[in-house]
Amino acid sequence: MSARAAAAPLIAVTSGEPAGIGPELCVRLAERRWPARVVVLGDLALIRDRAAAIGSPAPVRPWQADAMPEPGTLEVLHQPLAAPSRPGRLDPANGAYVLGLLERAIAGCLAGEFAAMVTAPVHKGVICEGLGAAAAMPFSGHTEYLAARTGTPRVVMMLVGGGLRVALVTTHLPLAAVAAAITPAAVEDTLRILHADLMRHFGLPAPRILVAGLNPHAGEGGHMGREEIDVILPVLEKLRAEGMQLVGPLPADTLFVPHTLAQGDAVLAMYHDQGLPVLKHASFGGGVNVTLGLPIVRTSVDHGTALDLAGSGRADPGSLFAAVDLAITMAAARAA
């Protein structure tokens, strides 16, 4: 292997659902010069077809570990499709193919072959239908699958964009189930993971975390709910005694004003739609989903498969570019 190839950190990008916009967004990675080596995991013919469909001039080449490509070339680590794929037309036969991309990226990250992995969007229904009863575990999403495959008991979803970092205690739960899920253990575990990974992956020696309350006005002294008093505050006091810099619980309706945000490095929201609407307003199309708590670095786009745009060349690569940028930064911080 050449010295240049050996020195460049290698970032694996899974191309996701083959009928969606993932493959063509991956083609557009060749438009930029990255401070790392980026390799796309996917079917070589599929990626070449999508490059032609969107009029990309980038050469698409099979990945060769021992030779750096010319600038503007897209490297593809070939993983064969199970069935032919057409833009916008889902085929459950390719569910195993999509999971195979994840398996290859996870294995490479755990072995030290890849410095980080970035994931293009998948379609959960196709994967579940395609695997059916043969699935070793139900697929509920990238995050849960990565946690299971790496043996990680708890992971934390954090979105980054628009100058914000917003992590969540609970993720995809009905609103009626959120309060019961806000337990002392859930809040404490999430804060410990968030604090540790802000140091490990973002280079923050003493992270400052702004913690939202659950109820309007953070419960207003118990008049609008006692979760702040009975659950959240005792955890914050315990962790402050250990040296963590935690502010809150704060009313969510005023937490995201510039003056308050300036006092923290990240926000911890109690539930999905408490924190993410603000972040997506500030960064939609350029936000990044980060999975904290894993033994590997993983980032992802903040959007779905957009089947209606597949093959059109009109899909915005901003979120994928941002996800690759952040993966490189996190991998470098981890290695330092």
Automatic annotation (TrEMBL):
Q: Does the record carry Membrane as a key word?
A: no
Q: Where does substrate bind?
A: H142, T143, K280, N289, R298
Gene Ontology MF terms in the entry: 4-hydroxythreonine-4-phosphate dehydrogenase activity; cobalt ion binding; magnesium ion binding; NAD binding; zinc ion binding
Any one GO cellular component localisation term in the record: cytoplasm
Its pathway, per UniProt, is:
Cofactor biosynthesis; pyridoxine 5'-phosphate biosynthesis; pyridoxine 5'-phosphate from D-erythrose 4-phosphate: step 4/5
Q: Which reaction does it catalyse?
A: 4-(phosphooxy)-L-threonine + NAD(+) = 3-amino-2-oxopropyl phosphate + CO2 + NADH
Record flagged with keyword Oxidoreductase: yes
Cofactor: how and how many bound = Binds 1 divalent metal cation per subunit. Can use ions such as Zn(2+), Mg(2+) or Co(2+).
| Sites where the protein binds a divalent metal cation | H172, H217, H272
Q: Which domain of life is it from?
A: Bacteria
Q: Which residues form the signal peptide?
A: none
EC number(s) for this protein?
1.1.1.262
Which keywords has UniProt assigned to this entry? Cobalt, Cytoplasm, Magnesium, Metal-binding, NAD, NADP, Oxidoreductase, Pyridoxine biosynthesis, Zinc
Which cofactor is essential here? Answer: Zn(2+); Mg(2+); Co(2+)
Alphabetized InterPro entries for the sequence: PdxA, PdxA_fam
Principal place of residence: cytoplasm
Localization per Swiss-Prot or TrEMBL: Cytoplasm
Q: What else is known?
A: The active site is located at the dimer interface.
Function per UniProt: Catalyzes the NAD(P)-dependent oxidation of 4-(phosphooxy)-L-threonine (HTP) into 2-amino-3-oxo-4-(phosphooxy)butyric acid which spontaneously decarboxylates to form 3-amino-2-oxopropyl phosphate (AHAP).
What family name appears in the similarity comment?
Belongs to the PdxA family.
How it assembles, according to the record, is: Homodimer.
This chain's protein is named 4-hydroxythreonine-4-phosphate dehydrogenase
Q: Which organism is it from?
A: Thauera chlorobenzoica
Taxonomic lineage of the native organism: Bacteria, Pseudomonadati, Pseudomonadota, Betaproteobacteria, Rhodocyclales
